[in-house]
Amino acid sequence: MTALLGTDPASIARAAACLREGGLVAFPTETVYGLGVHAMDVPAVRRLFAAKGRPAHDPLIVHVSSLDRAALLTTGMPPEASALAHAFWPGPLTMVLPRHGAVPREVTAGLDTVAVRVPAHPVARALLEAAGVPIAAPSANLFSRPSPTTAAHVLEDLGGRIDMVIDGGPTSVGVESTVIDLTTMPPRVLRPGGVSVERLRALLPHLEMPGTSVAAGEAAPSPGLLSQHYSPRTPMALYSGALEATRQAIVKRIHEATGDGLRVGVLATRERAAALGPIPVPVVDLGSEQDADAVARRLYAAIREIDAANLDLILTQQVAHTGGLWQAIGDRLTRAATEHVAVP
Ligand code: TXA
Ligand code: MG
Question: Which among 213, 222, 228 is the best mutation to test ligand 1's pocket, defined by most ligand atoms within 8 Å of the CB?
Answer without folding.
Answer: 222
